Amino acid sequence: MNFRDNLLPDKKYITSWISAGWTNDVMTYINLIYLGIITDRIPIVAMFTPSHIGGAVPPIPFGDVFDVPRLRQLLKRPVLEWREVKDSSSRELDDLGCWNIWEAVQDREHYPRHSVVPDMLSIDISYTKAPKWLKLIPNFEHDMHSTFWSLAVLGFPEGRRDNLVPPRESQHHHVMLPPDEQVLCYDYLYYVCAAQPFEFDFDYSPAWRYVGQYMRWTPQLEALVDHYVRRTIGVSDGEVTPTWIAVHIRHGDFKNWCGNVPIEDCFAPLSVIARRVQEVKEEILEKKGIVVEHVIMTSDERDEAWWASVRSRGWFQVDHSETVEQYGAW
């Protein structure tokens, strides 16, 4: 069965693919859903790929991580997953015409942004190169952002028609298809903003305000978190889980950015992290009236002396020695 057989003929849809690390992939899907809002299209969200844990691990559906029913309710709009549109075990290769944004915003790679997701979904894509005017900062090689509304233009009949060029041949069926009109498709939506690059850092960010803030972990993940928190802190059965905040310190691959600077001078010392933790505690107390009782540290740091210093501050370290065996690599 072709995925189109599961689409409503009177509805329009939008989709895209991920191609980065997990955090960036989450932001990419947030951008996709927001673009669906402003184009009045139903987003079809694909899975997460194991970019950070190894290709031997299967992907995990978006809805196994984030609470999609809750998201639909709060957005007051439908949000679909690809597993609801196409059987994940289907090997039928479906054709789809998509916009190639990647070549419009950078000049180093002369092809669409690569993603393993279309192959996982058995979708054979014919890409059409998008116009250069999509790029937020013209001719600036150090940034690759386009804007939501410039991309939205391509999702409407006039904008689509006025920017069509001969499409690239698809990889498998060798067909040349213009961008699909019912399923608006882009190769990559991480580098998208409303006003300035990487605006997730700012309070006006529309992708965050209208989508991101409504995304929550699934109830199953929330329960798993509570289980680990209680075990880590040492909460007895029947007791209420105390207030806590978590700090994640990423050292593993970040040391590659230190260059010739010694690690101890490159990474923030625990004393600095402790100061920031205290600032967060004070802010939570001031804004929410909540006293944070515990601090849980997570990190890929393997230096036991560093961890000893963490514990000496009264902070907790999570025991993940059996996590993979019990719950899988994800």
From TrEMBL:
Lineage: Eukaryota, Fungi, Dikarya, Basidiomycota, Agaricomycotina
Name the record gives this protein: Uncharacterized protein
